């Protein structure tokens, strides 16, 4: 079964399963995670030379368990209790467990619980992201640090503190009850989407390496969908990621400049990803009540179905945004809705939707608001005001590609190159 | 990015005790930021008397002695931090002891290469 898979694939598949099992058996997320990291390191150095063992998962489990046991033993008397517990696991003392020694709980459930644990509400968002990438994604601290453009020491501290906070919050490795489960799943989806966007918004130039994050988010979303095939929002999120990531090659020009959706060369969109995304969301909407991720995926699907921006079914997009604004009101939704409304009812109607956002502290003075207003003012033929708004947006962004794009837009309005 | 502006050599006028306390405070903040994982980096700059400035003189770039600005306060160094919000960055800056001695901390976001689809 292992011939055509790389060692890294194997490790990343089994890492969350092994960690999940260990944490369920012994608790102590922090130590189990360290032990699994050591086992992964051992595997990464030994397997390429010595060959992959017959049962890689059992191998990893054995090595990680041995590390845990060693550590407990070395702490001698203070840790008598844990040593006793660890010694009660003869199957993991040195040899791979027999097939019938497999745990009663399927590995899949451990992976799901691990995701819930990493997205624990006691953790700040940045820590949830880092911990998920490491514990469930099996990325090394160095890889995660590189992707976030921070030094490895910074990321290692962030992960260490996150693990301690999970421990301190007394997080039990058990499946949460139905109500809490739904809430936690919401956090898991948000974290995966955050990981995706961190990668997707940086798909050019020196930050190409952050594209790893996009691939990782999609991989994790696929795993999650495998675990929860009956959840429409999980499918919706996967579809949304696929449909968005399909733009990758077209969204950045040859000089690294941002190309807006309306001007992208759609023949460069990833056709396979588009097809899969459309199929997923179309199917999900037939049996699931529409949630925010499904609606955003549906909007992306409508865009993808048009062969040019001009042929887009804007009426359908407006209807979808209206629904989205009702079930998940959010000023960023209103911004996008305003663009769609402008395409159907004219720029004035779109601009009217923006007015309340000036009084909303989440968007007042935000460069995205200024950028959308600039675009609609330009459509309305108000050249001077549009130019001012583009420049205000350019001053407000901390993104270099966005700043360039906005400055070029402003310059075009004055006829300057 | 937290930019540190202060009066060069202001520590020379402090008592031994105050100076030790000041450096202790800086060490304390750096230690805390390392522990929280928020510290990305930082550097102190040498006294402005060590400065060379390149600027255009009669149409040609020339190398001159001394700092670019002749103001009382000079750019003394920086701290790069990775925080959750600009408010948190300002909170860190507010604790920097130079502020109490008439200096100023400028808190500015760093540009990055990420950009959302428009």
From TrEMBL, chain A:
Statement: the UniProt record of this protein carries the keyword Signal: no
Pfam family name, one: Sigma70_r2
Keyword terms: Sigma factor, Transcription, Transcription regulation
RNA polymerase sigma factor 70 region 4 type domain: residues covered: 115-165
DUF6596 domain boundaries: 184-284
Domain RNA polymerase sigma-70 region: 10-76
Record keyword Oxidoreductase present: no
Similarity comment: Belongs to the sigma-70 factor family. ECF subfamily.
Name this polypeptide is given: RNA polymerase sigma factor (Sigma-70 family)
Organism: Micromonospora ureilytica
Source lineage: Bacteria, Bacillati, Actinomycetota, Actinomycetes, Micromonosporales
């Amino acid at each position: 079964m292992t011939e055509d898979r790389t060692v890294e694939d194997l490790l990343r598949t089994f890492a969350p399963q092994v960690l999940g099992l260990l944490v369920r058996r012994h608790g102590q997320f922090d130590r189990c995670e360290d032990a699994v990291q050591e086992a992964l390191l051992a595997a990464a150095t030994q397997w390429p030379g010595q060959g992959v063992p017959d049962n890689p998962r059992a191998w990893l489990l054995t090595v990680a368990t041995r590390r845990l046991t060693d550590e407990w033993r070395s702490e001698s008397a203070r840790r008598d209790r844990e040593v006793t517990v660890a010694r009660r696991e003869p199957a993991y003392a040195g040899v791979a467990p027999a097939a019938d020694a497999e745990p009663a709980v399927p590995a899949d459930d451990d992976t799901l619980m691990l995701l819930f644990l990493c997205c624990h509400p006691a953790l700040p968002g940045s820590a949830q992201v880092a911990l998920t990438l490491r514990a469930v994604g099996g990325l090394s601290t160095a890889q995660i640090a590189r992707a976030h453009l921070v030094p490895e020491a910074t990321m290692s501290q962030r992960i260490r503190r996150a693990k301690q906070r999970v421990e301190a919050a007394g997080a039990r490795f058990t499946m949460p009850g139905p109500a809490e489960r739904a809430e936690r799943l919401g956090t898991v989806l948000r974290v995966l989407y955050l990981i995706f966007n961190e990668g997707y918004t940086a798909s050019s130039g020196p930050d190409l390496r952050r594209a790893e994050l996009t691939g990782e988010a999609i991989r994790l979303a696929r795993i999650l969908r495998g675990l929860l095939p009956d959840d429409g929002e999980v499918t919706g999120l996967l579809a949304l990621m696929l449909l968005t990531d399909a733009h990758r090659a077209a969204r950045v020009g040859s000089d690294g400049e941002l190309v807006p959706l309306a001007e992208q060369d759609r023949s460069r969109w990833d056709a396979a990803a588009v097809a899969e995304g459309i199929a997923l969301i179309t199917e999900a909407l037939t049996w699931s009540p529409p949630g925010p991720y499904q609606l955003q995926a549906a909007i992306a699907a409508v865009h993808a179905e048009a062969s040019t921006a001009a042929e887009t079914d804007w009426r359908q997009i407006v209807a979808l945004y209206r629904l989205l604004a009702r079930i998940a009101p959010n000023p960023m939704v209103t911004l996008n809705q305003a663009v769609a409304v402008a395409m159907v009812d004219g720029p004035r109607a779109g601009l009217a939707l923006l007015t309340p956002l000036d009084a909303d502290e989440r968007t007042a003075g935000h460069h995205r608001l200024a950028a959308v207003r600039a675009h609609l003012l330009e459509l309305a033929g108000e050249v001077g005001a549009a130019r001012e708004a583009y420049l205000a947006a350019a001053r407000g962004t901390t993104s270099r590609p966005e700043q360039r794009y906005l400055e070029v837009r402003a310059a075009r309005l004055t006829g300057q190159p | 990015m937290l930019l540190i502006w202060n009066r060069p050599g202001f520590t020379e006028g402090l008592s031994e005790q105050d100076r030790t306390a000041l450096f202790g405070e800086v060490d304390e903040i750096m230690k805390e930021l390392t522990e929280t994982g928020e510290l990305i980096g930082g550097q102190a700059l040498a006294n402005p008397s060590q400065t060379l400035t390149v600027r255009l003189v009669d149409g040609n770039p020339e190398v001159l002695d001394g700092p670019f600005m002749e103001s009382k306060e000079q750019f003394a160094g920086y701290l790069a931090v990775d925080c959750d919000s600009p408010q948190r960055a300002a909170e860190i800056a507010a604790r920097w002891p130079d502020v109490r001695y008439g200096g100023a901390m400028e808190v500015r976001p760093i540009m990055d290469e990420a950009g959302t689809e428009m």
